[in-house]
Amino acid sequence: MDRTRLHALLARESAEAARRNPRSRAAYARADHLFGRVPMTWMNKTAGAFPRYLAAARGARVTDVDGHQYIDFCLGDTGAMAGHSPAPVTEAVHRRYAELGGATAMLPTEDAEWVGAELTRRFGLARWSFSLTATDANRWAIRLARAVTGRPKILVNSYCYHGSVDESLIVTAPDGTGTPRPGNVGAPCDVTLTSRVAEFNDLAGLERELAHGDVAAVLMEPALTNIGIVLPEPGYLAGVRELTRRHGALLINDETHTFSAGPGGCTAAWELEPDLLTIGKAIGGGIPAGAYGLSAELAERLLARTDLDLVDMGGVGGTLAGNALSVAATRATLAHVLTDEAFARMSALAERFEAGVRAGLDAHGLPWSVSRLGARTEYRFTSPAPRTGTESAAAADPELEDFLHLYLANRGILLTPFHNMALMCPDTTENDVDTHTEVFAAALDELAG
Length: 449
What we know:
InterPro entries: Aminotrans_3 (IPR005814), PyrdxlP-dep_Trfase (IPR015424), PyrdxlP-dep_Trfase_major (IPR015421), PyrdxlP-dep_Trfase_small (IPR015422). By secondary structure, this protein is an alpha/beta fold.
């Protein structure tokens, strides 16, 4: 890679983004009362000097305040995998909030049992409870795992993604021990006091950590996602399940991003058998929603514990969790939008996207790789594809990533700003995918000179 040429192209695209988006630039400059000038500080993780501001979104399209429309492959970093404002969810939310009235009454609705039954059909876990985010679902699953096992520690994979769960912000050091993940903010304690860590695809490392006998649960994504897609090697996930059972640790599958693998995520697609499963983001069709499922045996063990306060102050639950509006949105999403048929079509589009990226890489002989997980595709600046989170993190190239993101955005295409992820929704079209293939190829041509 000619870095001088890359720097020049990046500067050109940055200037073009500033020229094209004066209203977004002005809105950002006026945002003096927001911490970091944005509603949430991670919104500053964007290529260029300022984020584009949202005006409208529908299906697979986003329009910014400067009037530019984009093909959206970001889709809210999975939160809008159902597409933006899908009609069945819009109708369900309107009926619940405007016609029937009431979103937070602290009373259950019959929608909740329908959603629980559908989640059981898809993922196999017998009992379900609700949250507003997958982060909270993970926090509460961790508490339940500690309570039922009597063990203090949680084991995660290096560079996993489980939201802002404190226990997950640990990575492997060069000597194989655990160390705080770089950039962790205000940790309540040294993360090695609460957590153990092993590399994804490393059964020997996992067994070494489980042998200490203090791990309540292994919390993992069946495939790493937020550090680039890292797929499991043959036999790895079966090995994880065998080791957790042998060492008396529970297994929690976090399907928040890996839901892209199919209607029941990786758990159904790969016939996995977790003790708990957590999910969020996409299931609400854009309305905040999350859930965690438990095996029948684990649910019975927990409910039989009279010493646990699962009703009031036990640290599991929230006033807005399971509210009528979120549950209505989730029912509509699962019943009418993210259906089995929709996933089949989305996965085919992601396969087409993958082929387009691969053709571009092959045309220039670039030593990059591209991986796919159902409806989700991602490329990394290394080949072969990374097999661990640490390897994938080492392949990062922020300048190259910013150039590609800006180049695409300036030509009407959005990728996930955190990494090079493209997600398909039910409204994505073959033409959308082919447009990306053409623009991506043009970007590579410019890099090659």
